[in-house]
Structures are given as C-alpha cells and as structure tokens.
Amino acid sequence: xxxxxxxxxxxTICNISGEININTSPQLRKSFExxxxxxxxxIVVDFSQVSYIDSSGLATFIELLQRLKKVxxxxxxxxxxxxxxxxFEVTKLHKLFEIFDSREAALNNFx
Amino acid sequence: xxxxxxxxxDLKNILPVALEIFQKLKSEGVKxxxxxxxxLCLEEAAINAIKHGNKKNKxxxxxxxxxxxGRSIEMIVxxxxxGFDHKNIPSPTKGKNIKKxxxxxxxxxxxxxxxxxxxxxGNKIKMVKLF
Lengths: 111, 131
Known about the structure:
The structure holds 2 protein chains of 2 kinds.
Chain A: E1 2-8, E2 11-20, H1 25-37, E3 42-53, H2 55-70, E4 74-78, H3 82-90, E5 98-100, H4 103-110
Parallel strand pairs in A: 2-3, 3-4, 4-5
Antiparallel strand pairs in A: 1-2
Chain B: E1 2-8, H1 14-27, H2 32-53, E2 61-68, E3 72-78, H3 105-112, E4 115-119, E5 124-130
Antiparallel strand pairs in B: 1-2, 2-3, 3-5, 4-5
Helix pairs in contact in B: 1-2, 2-3
C-alpha cells in the first residue's frame, strides 16, 4: 500500500493505492495520525487505486472517522471499484461514510 | 485440485498462503470478481482462527484446505482453539454495532459465500463459493 497527499482549495486529498488489509492497516492508521494531530478539517480519500479491503481496513476507517470528528474534521471517500464498494454496501458502511463516485463530486461536496 | 496448508498462528503467515491459493485458482481460470470474494473470506476465516481460535499462540496450527472442482471452490479453515458460539453473533449492521471496530469477518463470509457451515464446536468453518 502507498499513500500520497495533495491539497486543493484547502482540502487534503489522500490517494491510497494497493491493498488495505490486516498487514497494511497499521500504516494507514499511522498516516492519518498527522491529520488528527493537525486538526485537518476536510479530507477526500481517493480509492481509485485501492484493489482490496478487508474487515481490518473497514475497522480502521471507522476508527479514523471517529477520531477525526473529535477534532472537528471529517473525510469523504471517492472513486471505489465496484468490488470494494460492494464490501462497504454489504456491511452497510456506505451509510456511515460519505461516498462519492468521483473525486470532483467529493471535493464539490466540501465547497 | 486440492490444496492443503498448515500455518502457525502468526497473522503474517496468512497473506503469502492466500496469495498462493489466489494464483493457483487464477491459473485454473477463476474470474477476478470471484477470486476477490474467495480470498477475502479465506483471509477473514484465517484471521479469526489465529486471533480468536488459537489466541495467537504460535505453537498452535491453523489448517487450510481448498478444493476446486471447476464449478465450485470449497474452503475449510480449522484451528486448535476451544471453538465459539457461532449461532449468536450480533449483526454488525444493526444499530450502534455499525460503529464497532470488530465483528465483521464472519458476517462478510456469510454474505459473500454460497454456503457456510461450522462444526467441531465452532473451530472449523467450511465455506463454498459456486460459480
């Protein structure tokens, strides 16, 4: 898994590529530490290059959303593959997270 | 085709085995979307076996068997733990459970597989995917 960051219109875009699984979830949690510490208010997590997610990955995102909200932040998720989206839908987590089909739609939702 | 593995109870042992099984099934012509579900459920079952079954005791083994028939994939994951009450697992989609950080592994397995059976008091799971 690889994570890169960029900024656009005051919104932090977090690009994740590869697999979010029990081995890589700790790395994801660590990367989000800086967002929590910096009270980052608006984050778009781009899933377009995420090929796989398991229950530990789902749990990590639930934890990160809860921690970010405590410091006044939040994130939107965008551009999931159909298989990854299916995992969120089966577990009903698409109701907990704000998920958008495209990066533009997620960014516009923050504006 | 029948593939059998024995791994000791270290979570790091799951991924190499899962990827090896994934490649073997892929070479048999199993489609990517089926492989995604099969791999996810195999890994979730193995994680449960190591964490909850064998309590991460590295002296205890997890036994994995995968049978490919051309029309179905059968996976059996067995641990050396005491088993558990698989009939009373709260749904992770109900009420406040949606925000819980655990309890989705078996739920996903039941949703993504065509048949799921527990035996030996809960320390053996048999999962079947038809296609």
